[in-house]
Amino acid sequence: xxxxxxxxxxxxxxxxxxxxxxxxxxxxxxxxxxxxxxxxxxxxxxxxxxxxxxxxxxxxxxxxxxxxxxxxxxxxxxxxxxxxxxxxxxxxxxxxxxxxxxxxxxxxxxxxxxxxxxxxxxxxxxxxxxxxxxxxxxxxxxxxxxxxxxxxxxxxxxxxxxxxxxxxxxxxxxxxxxxxxxxxxxxxxxxxxxxxxxxxxxxxx
Amino acid sequence: xxxxxxxxxxxxxxxxxxxxxxxxxxxxxxxxxxxxxxxxxxxxxxxxxxxxxxxxxxxxxxxxxxxxxxxxxxxxxxxxxxxxxxxxxxxxxxxxxxxxxxxxxxxxxxxxxxxxxxxxxxxxxxxxxxxxxxxxxxxxxxxxxxxxxxxxxxxxxxxxxxxxxxxxxxxxxxxxxxxxxxxxxxxxxxxxxxxxxxxxxxxxxxxxxxxxxxxxxxxxxxxxxxxxxxxxxxxxxxxxxxxxxxxxxxxxxxxxxxxxxxxxxxxxxxxxxxxxxxxxxxxxxxxxxxxxxxxxxxxxxxxxxxxxxxxxxxxxxxxxxx
Lengths: 205, 322
Known about the structure:
CATH superfamily of chain B: Aldolase class I
CATH topology of chain A: Rossmann fold
Largest interface: A-B, 48 and 48 residues
Oligomer: heterodimer
CATH class of chain B: Alpha Beta
CATH topology of chain B: TIM Barrel
Number of strands of chain A: 13
Number of domains of chain B: 1
Strand order of the largest sheet of chain A: 2-1-3-4-13-12-11
Number of helices of chain B: 13
CATH class of chain A: Alpha Beta
Largest sheet of chain A: 7 strands, mixed
Largest sheet of chain B: 8 strands, parallel
CATH superfamily of chain A: Class I glutamine amidotransferase (GATase) domain
Order of helices and strands of chain B: EEHEHEHHEHEEHEHHHEHEHHH
Strand content of chain A: 25-35%
Radius of gyration of chain A: 15 Å
Radius of gyration of chain B: 19 Å
Strand content of chain B: 5-15%
Shape of chain B: globular
Strand order of the largest sheet of chain B: 9-8-7-6-5-4-3-10
Structural class of chain B: alpha/beta
Helix content of chain A: 25-40%
Shape of chain A: globular
Structural class of chain A: alpha/beta
CATH architecture of chain A: 3-Layer(aba) Sandwich
């Protein structure tokens, strides 16, 4: 059956994720469509969703206001695959703390049982690119683009570590939910998007 | 995808490091332009104090821009406007989790270096401050911190990108509460983009190089932009935005996001207005939501606008010929 994948279009790097996901769909030859979604109605129709990078405080507040946060949470709890990138991974966590400001009071989806540090590598001047490895999902080499990125300091039950940079956890997975601290949509490499599309396809079919 | 490469390999802003024998690259175009990507569909708010910065963050701003005075106050005060106090910038950086930007004067390399050392997340080489060099802008490729510039036309925008700008915004006319100039500038950029795109589509290279010479930029950047049909970096609206409807209109004209200067903290309903402008920017294409946002503010509390035809200082002309 044809799959329907959405990119949460509240704020942030929406268009680039649509393009990467479309390229992944084409290359895999899977029947489906990729669209930007914002309303609870649009989200309720999906088989999978990407929560893109942006500002997690902004995305959280605004998805709370229009009711999409609630629907999103229900769908994820019912098994819908999610790829949360940077701010998206923060949204999926149960607690977030800023490196400087400390614990933040922001709307979260409470899916991953983890300890997460926002702006973990420092401010924008410390943002970087580097090669990382995601061995558990058979992506031995991937260019990680880290923009004011978070990192995971501790994982709780059921959360698998997919990749690390300098001993810090930067990619995680729990069932159908993936979180990355880096931005796959800012590279030409679509292997992570392909992995996600395959996940959505096997969930649906 | 917007081209994130187009790197100058001699750029001093690109820094290679080793972290426990792992190679990392800082200040590349991917990392600098990528930062601007994370602001898309968001609102950046001008602030002068910690309290204002916190109001902005709570309202859902994606970033704050620290100034010594709001543009409208700069206009009233006259004299020379310079970058904000470093101590205030640092206090704001320590009190909000969203990115913090600050302005430096056009062409003032060392003011920008000071801001880079302060670790602000983005530098705005801005016409709101008094230009330090009317003829030369900063060579932004030498900065690891990304820089945003204002532009009134496609030619200005492409000149700034060739100097290494990671993001563009319209100039508008700052501190007026009058959105007319920002509208004029984005419409002009859009119109010129349509022109070069149609030349590119027709395959007339002879005419494309004519445009490059008219714009005073390289053929390569004109060709790349024409092929894309949009600016190769993130493009925001700025200058004179005062209401939710102003923000929604500029988003509908294809802007990637909004800068609000004096419009919020010079109004008498700053908190509600900050929130309302964020809502209208996010939901710009849902007219019922824009109406709800507009209803949150009171026109009697709006800043008193200025007619751009009677201004003593036209900030948008600063650095415009360079």
